[in-house]
Amino acid sequence: MSESNLKSMAELVSLSKRRGYVFQSSEIYGGLGSCWDYGPLGVELKKNIQARWWKAMTYREDISGIDASILMHPTVWKASGHIDNFTDPLVDCKKCKARFREDQIDLTKPCPACGEKGSFTEPRAFNLMFSTKMGAVEDAASTIYLRPETCQGIFTNFLNVQATMRLKLPFGIAQIGKAFRNEITPGNFIFRTREFEQMEMQYFVRPGTQMEHMEKWKEIRWNWHLENGLRPERLRWAPHTKLAHYADAAIDIEYEFPMGWGEMEGIHSRTNFDLTQHQQYSGKNLQYVDQADNNNKYIPYVIETSVGSDRTILALMCDAYRLENEGGGESERTVMRFKPDIAPIKVAVLPLMKKTDLEDKARPIFADIQKNYRAEYDTSGSIGKRYRRQDEIGTPFCITVDYDSLTDNAVTVRERDSMKQERIAIDNLKRYLSDKLQLN
Ligand code: ATP
After folding, report:
1. Measuring from atom 28 of ligand 1, which residue has the nearest CA?
2. What residues contact residue 246 under an 8 Å CB cut-off, 6+ apart?
3. Residue 140: is its pLDDT beyond 70?
4. pTM of the prediction?
């Protein structure tokens, strides 16, 4: 058997549309630049990944979760530095007006869009925040922003969470939510979009201990990606060469996408910058009283782990993709080798034919499986075609109900990767699936 990996992003975009993972936003109107909709399978994938992150990050006594509002007081963004500094250097081609990030193109070379040489405008700072108006009165004071990162909702709630959960340092606050950036050069499918989701955790520590915590979090986060099933040879560390104004250390976890290495997660030591700024701008005391250290008062330091849901999904899809026996006619198949916990559909129930007696047998089996797992019931087309569809959506197990099932009360269970088939008694199915799927 021959097999190959994903060769281009276009292949994945096409599979995503064909099978219902991801669609272009507003497609019937020609689409909206770099905005995407998760379809029926994509939303399952996303929920599974987010649930894994939530469990890994909050099923522990030192971390609590929140879900903060996307819209925040505008002064938050003044304090955080986003109004003044959250910019990319933008250049325009003087001829075709195409826009580029200065740091992503070579200004001595011709314009990548129209081929004109040496005709770029001077770089200017372009703020990536989306602004909007709040309330009915349109004046300058009503301008607010869609959050460009989720963590500021964590910083502004630092004392609320600490007090209500009676947390002692070191402790963390975790959140999953949407963020928005008016990226100049978005692209590569869901890698860089203008609306995306982040899974972030801010870990508050005693000043001076941040580097030891950073090391611990680096290890935890690296292992999380491995536990999701990503191939280790496609992961690497990428230390930042230029630190953001608030950071004293920063490193990314990168994945080797079809278009090259790209950041999936950032682990940053953000010092006490954000809380100090919010204390100054809000006039509220954000110090922590350290009872373990003579009631010493200080602003904690922060280690942040920030991973994109969408980039994690993209990496997992690229990684899971296999084309087997290419050009082999009937034996060619595309398989998404997701780990069962991540697979959008866990089990498919397939009556061999669309016949009443087979369906009467299969329906109760499906109903029973659905109590525990996201499952599909499919009667359309040949059994071979139905297996191919389930392979392409990464379903770990297919259960076929055939004429023998009517008398022997057993079904054929087919495993996705090996395609091995086993005859299992219907009474033992529940046990069989829970042993094999090992969802955790
Ligand atoms: P990049 O350098 O690729 O623009 P960044 O360093 O600005 O990313 P962070 O601000 O560290 O990214 O955000 C943390 C995570 O959020 C990233 O690792 C990524 O997974 C995700 N992310 C950031 N921007 C986008 C985007 N435009 N589209 C999708 N995911 C994003």
Report:
1. 192
2. 81, 270, 271, 273, 274
3. no
4. 0.94
